[in-house]
# Entry
Amino acid sequence: MSVIYDRVALIGLGHIASSMCWGMKAAGVAGEVTGYARSSDTRNAAREIGLCDRVCDSAAAAVEGADLVVLCVPVGAMGAVAKEIAPHLKSGATVSDVGSVKRAVIDAVAPHLPEAVHFVPAHPLAGTEQSGPTSGFAELFHNRWCLLTPEAADRTATAKLRQFWEALGSNVDEMDADHHDLVLAVTSHAPHLIAYTMVGVADDLQRVTENEVIQFSATGFRDFTRIAASDPTMWRDVFLNNKDATLEILGRFTEELFALQRAIRQGDGDHLHDYFTRTRAIRRGIVEAGQDTAAPNFGRGGPE
Ligand code: NAP
# Structure
Protein backbone atom coordinates (compact mmCIF):
# COMPACT_ATOMS: atom_id res chain seq x y z
CA MET A 1 0.00 0.00 0.00
CA SER A 2 1.35 3.47 -0.77
CA VAL A 3 1.41 6.49 1.50
CA ILE A 4 -1.86 8.47 1.46
CA TYR A 5 -0.92 11.22 3.93
CA ASP A 6 2.70 12.25 4.57
CA ARG A 7 1.91 13.17 8.16
CA VAL A 8 -1.06 12.13 10.31
CA ALA A 9 -1.73 13.58 13.79
CA LEU A 10 -3.98 11.86 16.30
CA ILE A 11 -5.35 13.93 19.17
CA GLY A 12 -6.40 11.61 21.99
CA LEU A 13 -4.56 8.29 22.27
CA GLY A 14 -7.21 5.83 23.39
CA HIS A 15 -8.82 2.73 21.95
CA ILE A 16 -9.72 4.13 18.54
CA ALA A 17 -6.53 6.17 18.06
CA SER A 18 -4.30 3.27 19.05
CA SER A 19 -6.15 0.95 16.67
CA MET A 20 -5.71 3.55 13.93
CA CYS A 21 -1.98 3.74 14.71
CA TRP A 22 -1.47 0.01 14.36
CA GLY A 23 -3.75 -0.05 11.33
CA MET A 24 -1.77 2.72 9.64
CA LYS A 25 1.48 0.92 10.37
CA ALA A 26 0.17 -2.33 8.93
CA ALA A 27 -1.20 -0.62 5.82
CA GLY A 28 1.73 1.76 5.31
CA VAL A 29 -0.57 4.67 4.54
CA ALA A 30 1.11 7.39 6.62
CA GLY A 31 4.66 8.75 6.25
CA GLU A 32 4.78 9.81 9.89
CA VAL A 33 2.24 9.53 12.72
CA THR A 34 2.31 11.99 15.60
CA GLY A 35 0.08 11.77 18.67
CA TYR A 36 -0.98 13.72 21.69
CA ALA A 37 -3.03 12.94 24.81
CA ARG A 38 -3.77 15.37 27.63
CA SER A 39 -2.30 13.23 30.46
CA SER A 40 1.38 12.41 30.77
CA ASP A 41 0.42 8.88 31.90
CA THR A 42 -1.27 8.21 28.57
CA ARG A 43 1.55 9.82 26.59
CA ASN A 44 4.12 7.74 28.43
CA ALA A 45 2.11 4.55 27.98
CA ALA A 46 1.91 5.31 24.25
CA ARG A 47 5.65 5.94 24.08
CA GLU A 48 6.42 2.70 25.91
CA ILE A 49 4.60 0.59 23.34
CA GLY A 50 5.89 2.63 20.38
CA LEU A 51 2.42 3.68 19.37
CA CYS A 52 3.30 6.68 17.20
CA ASP A 53 6.46 7.77 15.47
CA ARG A 54 6.38 10.78 17.82
CA VAL A 55 4.26 11.37 20.92
CA CYS A 56 4.23 15.14 21.50
CA ASP A 57 3.77 17.07 24.72
CA SER A 58 1.29 19.52 23.21
CA ALA A 59 -1.55 19.29 20.73
CA ALA A 60 -0.01 22.22 18.84
CA ALA A 61 3.25 20.32 18.29
CA ALA A 62 1.40 17.18 17.23
CA VAL A 63 -0.67 18.90 14.50
CA GLU A 64 2.13 21.08 13.17
CA GLY A 65 2.69 20.21 9.50
CA ALA A 66 0.11 17.41 9.57
CA ASP A 67 -1.84 16.66 6.39
CA LEU A 68 -4.52 14.77 8.30
CA VAL A 69 -5.53 15.54 11.89
CA VAL A 70 -7.98 13.15 13.55
CA LEU A 71 -9.72 14.09 16.80
CA CYS A 72 -10.03 10.90 18.87
CA VAL A 73 -11.38 12.33 22.14
CA PRO A 74 -14.85 11.98 23.70
CA VAL A 75 -17.60 13.78 21.81
CA GLY A 76 -18.01 16.43 24.53
CA ALA A 77 -14.32 17.39 24.29
CA MET A 78 -14.15 17.85 20.49
CA GLY A 79 -14.97 21.59 20.46
CA ALA A 80 -12.31 22.54 23.01
CA VAL A 81 -9.69 20.44 21.25
CA ALA A 82 -10.57 21.99 17.86
CA LYS A 83 -10.19 25.46 19.36
CA GLU A 84 -6.79 24.55 20.81
CA ILE A 85 -5.34 23.16 17.58
CA ALA A 86 -6.95 25.62 15.12
CA PRO A 87 -4.12 28.23 15.06
CA HIS A 88 -1.52 25.51 14.43
CA LEU A 89 -3.15 23.69 11.50
CA LYS A 90 -1.38 23.53 8.16
CA SER A 91 -3.15 25.25 5.30
CA GLY A 92 -4.88 22.64 3.12
CA ALA A 93 -4.89 20.02 5.90
CA THR A 94 -7.86 17.73 6.43
CA VAL A 95 -9.36 17.67 9.92
CA SER A 96 -11.50 14.69 10.83
CA ASP A 97 -12.78 12.96 13.96
CA VAL A 98 -14.03 9.55 15.05
CA GLY A 99 -16.87 10.69 17.32
CA SER A 100 -19.89 8.45 17.77
CA VAL A 101 -22.24 11.42 17.27
CA LYS A 102 -21.98 13.64 14.23
CA ARG A 103 -24.28 16.69 14.35
CA ALA A 104 -23.11 17.87 17.77
CA VAL A 105 -19.47 17.35 16.80
CA ILE A 106 -19.89 19.32 13.57
CA ASP A 107 -21.56 22.16 15.49
CA ALA A 108 -18.81 22.14 18.13
CA VAL A 109 -15.78 21.81 15.82
CA ALA A 110 -16.57 23.64 12.56
CA PRO A 111 -16.78 27.18 13.99
CA HIS A 112 -13.18 26.96 15.27
CA LEU A 113 -11.54 25.77 12.07
CA PRO A 114 -9.82 28.14 9.65
CA GLU A 115 -11.23 28.30 6.10
CA ALA A 116 -7.99 26.91 4.70
CA VAL A 117 -8.59 23.42 6.15
CA HIS A 118 -11.09 20.76 5.07
CA PHE A 119 -13.35 19.32 7.74
CA VAL A 120 -14.53 15.78 6.94
CA PRO A 121 -16.23 14.19 9.98
CA ALA A 122 -16.10 10.40 10.26
CA HIS A 123 -17.31 7.60 12.49
CA PRO A 124 -15.77 4.12 12.34
CA LEU A 125 -18.44 1.66 13.48
CA ALA A 126 -15.97 -0.47 15.34
CA GLY A 127 -14.84 -0.80 18.90
CA THR A 128 -14.71 -2.92 21.99
CA GLU A 129 -15.49 -2.10 25.61
CA GLN A 130 -11.76 -1.47 26.19
CA SER A 131 -10.22 1.97 26.39
CA GLY A 132 -6.78 3.54 26.54
CA PRO A 133 -3.63 3.43 24.40
CA THR A 134 -2.79 -0.23 25.05
CA SER A 135 -6.21 -1.52 23.97
CA GLY A 136 -5.93 -0.98 20.21
CA PHE A 137 -5.29 -3.52 17.47
CA ALA A 138 -4.79 -3.12 13.73
CA GLU A 139 -7.66 -5.37 12.69
CA LEU A 140 -10.34 -3.43 14.58
CA PHE A 141 -11.67 -1.74 11.44
CA HIS A 142 -11.51 -4.75 9.14
CA ASN A 143 -14.82 -5.25 7.36
CA ARG A 144 -16.51 -2.64 9.59
CA TRP A 145 -18.29 0.39 8.23
CA CYS A 146 -16.82 3.85 8.49
CA LEU A 147 -19.40 6.58 7.87
CA LEU A 148 -18.31 9.97 6.55
CA THR A 149 -20.60 12.98 7.01
CA PRO A 150 -18.81 15.52 4.80
CA GLU A 151 -21.67 18.03 4.29
CA ALA A 152 -20.08 20.75 2.09
CA ALA A 153 -16.51 19.46 2.44
CA ASP A 154 -14.13 19.48 -0.50
CA ARG A 155 -14.69 16.35 -2.64
CA THR A 156 -10.99 15.65 -3.15
CA ALA A 157 -10.34 15.77 0.61
CA THR A 158 -13.35 13.52 1.21
CA ALA A 159 -12.21 11.01 -1.44
CA LYS A 160 -8.74 10.88 0.14
CA LEU A 161 -10.16 10.22 3.60
CA ARG A 162 -12.34 7.48 2.11
CA GLN A 163 -9.22 5.91 0.58
CA PHE A 164 -7.50 6.14 4.00
CA TRP A 165 -10.28 4.30 5.86
CA GLU A 166 -10.54 1.71 3.10
CA ALA A 167 -6.80 1.08 3.50
CA LEU A 168 -7.44 0.41 7.21
CA GLY A 169 -9.90 -2.28 6.15
CA SER A 170 -13.20 -0.42 6.44
CA ASN A 171 -16.15 -0.26 4.10
CA VAL A 172 -16.86 3.43 3.67
CA ASP A 173 -20.14 5.22 3.04
CA GLU A 174 -21.36 8.80 3.21
CA MET A 175 -24.38 9.93 5.16
CA ASP A 176 -26.16 13.07 6.28
CA ALA A 177 -25.13 13.86 9.88
CA ASP A 178 -28.69 13.93 11.29
CA HIS A 179 -29.51 10.66 9.59
CA HIS A 180 -26.32 9.15 11.00
CA ASP A 181 -27.37 10.15 14.51
CA LEU A 182 -30.80 8.55 14.12
CA VAL A 183 -29.39 5.32 12.65
CA LEU A 184 -26.80 5.07 15.44
CA ALA A 185 -29.42 5.79 18.09
CA VAL A 186 -31.21 2.63 16.89
CA THR A 187 -28.22 0.40 16.28
CA SER A 188 -25.86 1.45 19.06
CA HIS A 189 -26.88 4.20 21.46
CA ALA A 190 -30.26 2.90 22.67
CA PRO A 191 -28.96 -0.72 22.90
CA HIS A 192 -26.14 0.52 25.12
CA LEU A 193 -28.55 2.33 27.40
CA ILE A 194 -30.65 -0.82 27.64
CA ALA A 195 -27.56 -2.85 28.53
CA TYR A 196 -26.55 -0.33 31.19
CA THR A 197 -30.09 -0.48 32.58
CA MET A 198 -30.28 -4.28 32.66
CA VAL A 199 -26.98 -4.56 34.51
CA GLY A 200 -28.11 -1.81 36.89
CA VAL A 201 -31.35 -3.71 37.56
CA ALA A 202 -29.41 -6.88 38.36
CA ASP A 203 -27.12 -4.92 40.62
CA ASP A 204 -30.12 -3.51 42.47
CA LEU A 205 -31.30 -7.06 43.17
CA GLN A 206 -28.52 -7.59 45.65
CA ARG A 207 -29.62 -11.05 46.69
CA VAL A 208 -29.31 -12.26 43.06
CA THR A 209 -26.11 -10.49 42.17
CA GLU A 210 -24.12 -11.56 45.17
CA ASN A 211 -23.39 -14.95 43.70
CA GLU A 212 -25.77 -16.22 41.10
CA VAL A 213 -25.43 -13.54 38.45
CA ILE A 214 -21.72 -14.08 38.22
CA GLN A 215 -21.80 -17.85 38.61
CA PHE A 216 -24.72 -18.61 36.31
CA SER A 217 -24.41 -15.73 33.90
CA ALA A 218 -26.15 -16.76 30.70
CA THR A 219 -25.00 -15.40 27.36
CA GLY A 220 -27.65 -12.68 27.18
CA PHE A 221 -26.67 -11.12 30.48
CA ARG A 222 -22.98 -11.74 29.89
CA ASP A 223 -23.20 -9.73 26.67
CA PHE A 224 -25.03 -6.98 28.54
CA THR A 225 -22.30 -6.79 31.19
CA ARG A 226 -19.61 -6.53 28.53
CA ILE A 227 -21.41 -3.69 26.81
CA ALA A 228 -22.15 -2.03 30.13
CA ALA A 229 -18.42 -2.07 30.90
CA SER A 230 -17.90 0.52 28.15
CA ASP A 231 -16.17 3.78 28.99
CA PRO A 232 -18.45 5.95 31.17
CA THR A 233 -17.14 9.28 29.83
CA MET A 234 -17.54 8.29 26.20
CA TRP A 235 -21.11 7.09 26.74
CA ARG A 236 -22.15 9.99 28.93
CA ASP A 237 -21.08 12.27 26.07
CA VAL A 238 -22.87 10.17 23.44
CA PHE A 239 -26.21 10.45 25.23
CA LEU A 240 -25.83 14.13 26.08
CA ASN A 241 -24.96 14.89 22.45
CA ASN A 242 -27.45 12.64 20.67
CA LYS A 243 -30.32 13.50 22.93
CA ASP A 244 -33.24 13.87 20.51
CA ALA A 245 -32.64 10.74 18.45
CA THR A 246 -31.94 8.61 21.53
CA LEU A 247 -35.09 9.82 23.30
CA GLU A 248 -37.15 9.19 20.15
CA ILE A 249 -35.91 5.60 19.92
CA LEU A 250 -36.30 4.98 23.66
CA GLY A 251 -39.91 6.19 23.43
CA ARG A 252 -40.60 3.64 20.70
CA PHE A 253 -38.73 0.97 22.63
CA THR A 254 -40.85 1.60 25.72
CA GLU A 255 -44.07 1.25 23.69
CA GLU A 256 -42.91 -2.08 22.24
CA LEU A 257 -41.82 -3.27 25.67
CA PHE A 258 -45.25 -2.50 27.11
CA ALA A 259 -46.87 -4.43 24.25
CA LEU A 260 -44.67 -7.47 24.94
CA GLN A 261 -45.34 -7.12 28.67
CA ARG A 262 -49.08 -7.19 27.96
CA ALA A 263 -48.68 -10.25 25.71
CA ILE A 264 -46.86 -12.11 28.47
CA ARG A 265 -49.46 -11.10 31.06
CA GLN A 266 -52.33 -12.15 28.78
CA GLY A 267 -50.67 -15.36 27.66
CA ASP A 268 -50.67 -14.16 24.03
CA GLY A 269 -48.17 -16.67 22.65
CA ASP A 270 -48.97 -15.82 19.03
CA HIS A 271 -47.93 -12.21 19.56
CA LEU A 272 -44.66 -13.26 21.17
CA HIS A 273 -43.94 -15.88 18.51
CA ASP A 274 -44.65 -13.50 15.62
CA TYR A 275 -42.51 -10.81 17.20
CA PHE A 276 -39.56 -13.11 17.78
CA THR A 277 -39.85 -14.52 14.25
CA ARG A 278 -39.57 -10.99 12.85
CA THR A 279 -36.54 -10.17 14.98
CA ARG A 280 -34.86 -13.47 14.09
CA ALA A 281 -35.04 -12.47 10.42
CA ILE A 282 -33.21 -9.23 11.22
CA ARG A 283 -30.42 -11.19 12.87
CA ARG A 284 -30.13 -13.41 9.77
CA GLY A 285 -29.82 -10.29 7.62
CA ILE A 286 -26.97 -9.00 9.78
CA VAL A 287 -25.12 -12.33 9.54
CA GLU A 288 -25.61 -12.44 5.77
CA ALA A 289 -24.21 -8.90 5.52
CA GLY A 290 -21.05 -10.10 7.33
CA GLN A 291 -21.67 -7.77 10.30
CA ASP A 292 -22.14 -10.52 12.88
CA THR A 293 -20.38 -11.09 16.19
CA ALA A 294 -17.45 -12.93 14.65
CA ALA A 295 -16.06 -9.50 13.80
CA PRO A 296 -14.66 -7.28 16.55
CA ASN A 297 -17.74 -5.19 17.03
CA PHE A 298 -20.87 -5.31 19.16
CA GLY A 299 -20.57 -8.96 20.06
CA ARG A 300 -16.99 -8.60 21.08
CA GLY A 301 -17.50 -5.48 23.05
CA GLY A 302 -19.97 -3.26 21.41
CA PRO A 303 -19.22 0.43 21.68
CA GLU A 304 -19.30 2.33 18.45
P1 NAP B 1 -10.62 6.23 25.10
O1 NAP B 1 -9.94 4.94 24.85
O2 NAP B 1 -11.27 6.44 26.42
O3 NAP B 1 -9.58 7.43 24.84
C1 NAP B 1 -10.00 8.76 24.95
C2 NAP B 1 -8.85 9.71 24.72
O4 NAP B 1 -9.36 11.05 24.81
C3 NAP B 1 -7.73 9.60 25.75
O5 NAP B 1 -6.49 9.81 25.13
C4 NAP B 1 -8.03 10.75 26.71
O6 NAP B 1 -6.87 11.32 27.26
C5 NAP B 1 -8.66 11.78 25.81
N1 NAP B 1 -9.59 12.64 26.53
C6 NAP B 1 -10.58 12.26 27.37
N2 NAP B 1 -11.26 13.33 27.82
C7 NAP B 1 -10.66 14.41 27.27
C8 NAP B 1 -10.87 15.80 27.37
N3 NAP B 1 -11.87 16.31 28.13
N4 NAP B 1 -10.05 16.63 26.68
C9 NAP B 1 -9.05 16.14 25.92
N5 NAP B 1 -8.79 14.82 25.78
C10 NAP B 1 -9.59 13.97 26.45
O7 NAP B 1 -11.75 6.54 24.01
P2 NAP B 1 -12.05 5.87 22.59
O8 NAP B 1 -12.84 4.63 22.81
O9 NAP B 1 -10.81 5.82 21.79
O10 NAP B 1 -13.07 6.94 22.00
C11 NAP B 1 -12.60 8.11 21.35
C12 NAP B 1 -13.69 8.64 20.43
O11 NAP B 1 -14.05 7.61 19.52
C13 NAP B 1 -14.97 9.06 21.12
O12 NAP B 1 -15.45 10.24 20.54
C14 NAP B 1 -15.95 7.92 20.82
O13 NAP B 1 -17.27 8.40 20.74
C15 NAP B 1 -15.43 7.45 19.48
N6 NAP B 1 -15.68 6.05 19.18
C16 NAP B 1 -15.43 5.10 20.13
C17 NAP B 1 -15.67 3.77 19.81
C18 NAP B 1 -15.43 2.69 20.82
O14 NAP B 1 -16.00 1.62 20.67
N7 NAP B 1 -14.63 2.89 21.84
C19 NAP B 1 -16.10 3.40 18.53
C20 NAP B 1 -16.29 4.39 17.57
C21 NAP B 1 -16.07 5.72 17.91
P3 NAP B 1 -6.21 10.77 28.61
O15 NAP B 1 -5.98 9.31 28.42
O16 NAP B 1 -4.96 11.55 28.72
O17 NAP B 1 -7.21 11.03 29.70
In short: The chain has a mean pLDDT of 93. The pocket of NAP is lined by residues 12-17, 37-39, 42, 72-75, 77, 81, 98-100, 123-124, 127, 131-132, 231, 234, 238, 303-304 (CB under 6 Å). The radius of gyration is 21 Å.
